[in-house]
Amino acid sequence: MLSWIELDTDRFRRNIEAFRAIEPQGTLVMVVVKANAYGHGLRALGSAAADVADWLGVNSVEEASALTALGVQKPIAILGHSELDRTEEIVREGYRQVVYRLDVAKALSEAGVRLGRPARIHLKIETGTNRQGIALAELKSFLASILQYPALEVEGAYTHFANIEDTLDPSFAQLQLKRFREALDMLSDAGRTPSVIHTAATAGALLYPETAFGMIRLGIGAYGVWPSRETQLAARERGRLISLSPVLTWKTRIAQVKTVAAGDYVGYGLTYQAGRPLRIGILPIGYYDGYDRKLSNCARVLVRGQFAPVIGRIAMNMTMIDVTDIGAHDDDEVVLIGKQGGNEIRAEEMAEKCGTIAYEMLSRINPLLPRVAGGV
After folding, report:
1. Each residue's pLDDT tens digit, 281-333
2. Are strands 28-32 and 215-218 parallel, antiparallel or unpaired?
3. Is the pLDDT score of 161 beyond 80?
4. Average pLDDT over residues 356-373
5. Beta bridge pairs of residue 47
6. Domain annotation for the chain: domains and CATH numbers
7. Shortest CA distance to 371 belongs to which of 38, 144, 41?
8. What are the residues facing 246 on neighbouring strands?
């Protein structure tokens, strides 16, 4: 293989169990595997996730179907929008659909009646993030409508925090939690107290035990990456710092080693000029593969356990590195993310250089790259 992803499933399981250990006994754990398992590979990690999780969370019917094809038997929640013509499939397969639109609720109900089975839904409550969700002011009328729909079972209710991982100030999270509790009271008054309630994603599960309710939703933390420096700092201060180990190692090989004379340029745009004679390695990886163009002239990789700087502009399928002082050869293994020797490159480091977050760096790794599950 020219470029590939290695996945340490033992680390994946340990990360999830580390979260389970700090939550109240009996708290369920949903592992979120949307966005191709945060770039790690849904098909490669789906079975491992199902082995250790109580629930799995996806964004789409397609992702849910991929888990079903793997033989996954755990409950699967579709956290994103689904089209009306997919509702029968959702009910038939027993997926739990997030609902915040009456037409979707009605279509699920009708599918349930046709199939003679319950359509289990989770209501998404809008508490301040202002993405998908039912506003508090609309919740009573929404409930009055869906209570008329046969076969519809309000199994769950949840919300999502807007400002929990990038700040040490808990005030907005507390406001959202207050609003969510008001929504639960409305559900109770309507005679529809959900059996599964969840608000805490990774940062919430770490920092605010009161947000656990009956289930937590683990995303980035399951993959061994902290949501932010602020989250890690706050977890340490609150005595809830756990050990997380990155699951993913991204590797490629040197396709060619060549010499560049002093004064010559490397790559498009003449953005790098050699100040001395160089030996450079050509890597068969580029922005098409998810190795961001913003890493040009500022990133580093690992070759023979040593750091090698990226030089020149990253192209669609090629990246150049300086291996002058390393003694590298054709076909040497190169680590883009992960450990080699005593050194390590983390997704957070790359994200900082690109002015983004590790979530984006990982989820944008090309899904066509082979994923190899096992030990790293």
Report:
1. 999 999 999 999 999 999 999 999 999 999 999 999 999 999 999 999 999 99
2. parallel
3. yes
4. 97
5. none
6. 9-237 (3.20.20.10), 248-374 (2.40.37.10)
7. 41
8. none
Q: Which residues have C-beta within 8 Å of that of residue 179, sequence separation ≥ 6?
A: 125, 127, 128, 136, 159
Check: CB of residue 159 under 8 Å from CB of residue 180: yes
Pairing of strands 3-8, 371-374: parallel
Taking 50 as the threshold, does the pLDDT of residue 173 lie above it?
yes
The size of the chain, in residues, is 376
Task: Please tell me what DSSP assigns to residue 55.
Answer: E
**Radius of gyration of the chain measured on its C-alpha atoms:** 24
Catalytic residues: 34, 268
CB neighbour list of residue 358: distance below 8 Å, 6 or more residues apart: 220, 225, 346, 347, 348, 350, 351
Give the separation between CA 2 and CA 6, rounded to whole angstroms.
13
Give pTM, 2 decimals. 0.95
Beta bridge partners of 373: 7
Return the pLDDT at 375: 57
For 136, the token pair is 């508090």
Burial class, 280, CB count within 10 angstroms (exposed 0-12 / middle 13-18 / buried 19+):
buried
Q: Which two tokens stand for residue 36?
A: 């191709």
